[in-house]
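Memo to structure team: turn this sequence into structure tokens by end of day. - J.P.
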Amino acid sequence: MASREFITRKLNQLIDNYENLSQHEQSEAMQFVLKLNNQYFREYCEMIDRMNDICNKLKEQNNELTKDIRFYQSFIKENKLNSRYAFYCKQKGVI
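Reply from structure team:
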């Protein structure tokens, strides 16, 4: 794909000179803009898909961590380690 600077310059030229272009040149300009828009749209859709994949992976990791936390919380509660755990957390600066 062409550089962003070139594309910006080309679009500005088309905007500035659009009224002075022949009908064929105006048609080509519109095709250029539509193709460019289509290309950027596809890129954005790909980025959205990648972000959705990343989000799903983060959700899975979050769910796994939540399960681990709940497991340890129940372990602490079942073994009556609350006071020891609170003391340990205060010593470590967690709480």
